[in-house]
Amino acid sequence: MSKEPLYSLRMRAAQGGAHEEGGLHISGGERLGFRDEIEALVSGLLRKALQHSRGDADFINLTIEKVEPASCRVLSPLPVSTYEVADAEEGRRQAAVLLRELSVSEQAIRNALCLLGSVNNLRGAVLLDSRSGERLDTRGERGIRVSRMDWDRERYLYWQNQHPLFGSPRIAEAIALATKVAYAPGTVAELCWSDDPEYVTGYVGSRRSGYCRITRLKEQGDFSGGRVFFVEPGTFISEYIVHLERTPVWIG
Ligand code: WAQ
Ligand code: MG
Ligand code: MG
Ligand code: MG
Fold first, then answer.
1. Nearest residue CA, atom 24 of ligand 1?
2. Nearest 10 degrees: CA dihedral of 205, 252, 8, 2?
């Protein structure tokens, strides 16, 4: 990897005031890039914030930080598979099957499905103990926002050529995030579906199973959604969070 300095860009947008003042979460985004890419990355993030199906943002926060490229971890993207299901009920059953195969407990699976099905204003991810199903973080609706990960640009073009049906920025972002999370020491699995009302496909991710898309995990028009990271019992949580928020990961 190049020795040029990298920059982390983080965006979060809300409606009805800032997140910390009780505003509704509209959109977030995180990118990593070189200095000469910053302007283009900023305008991409602003476009995402300003044209969003969850609503019209009236608060946008953008943070740009230089990161140490030497600390960057290079990871291959998780392999992708797709489970076609008829409706959200079948999709959630499929998610449960996949999570069970990864040794996530029944209690933890139930808690995660119940949480994601009811929360409609979660900005980051919730950490659940993969055995007891208990929540491990104390972040409330803020959750843990994974950042400092992005695709190597050439690797992405190559990947897109091999996966012509998966060309959307949404899928690229989800795979980068799922790869960083799957390889974080302590992660057992991830369950995700979007909080965007029109996007019903979600996934179960892990090192062992890869990125398993499930075509429907909720009904059209539903604002529920979020992410749950199932964590191995005994993981040192503050260290786990620092890794997710701070360690730069390059998908290459
Ligand atoms: N770190 C932690 N949690 C996040 C992050 C992040 N960087 N970004 C989003 N989340 C959480 C947060 O709770 C959001 O409300 C929720 O995930 C959904 O985010 O077809 O579009 O960006 O293969 O709406 C997955 C399937 C799409 C894509 C996921 O999520 C496919 C998606 P969204
Ligand atoms: Mg988002
Ligand atoms: Mg996103
Ligand atoms: Mg969203």
1. 194
2. 160
For the chain, what are the domain ranges? 6-71, 74-251
Q: 145 CB under 6 A from ligand 1?
A: yes
* 236: its two tokens: 């040192």
Is 201 touching ligand 1 by the criterion CB < 6 Å? yes
Question: What ipTM was reported for this prediction?
Answer: 0.96
For the stretch 156-171, pLDDT in tens is 999 999 999 999 999 9
Determine the residue type at 48: K
- Ligand nearest to the CA of residue 13, numbered in listed order: 2
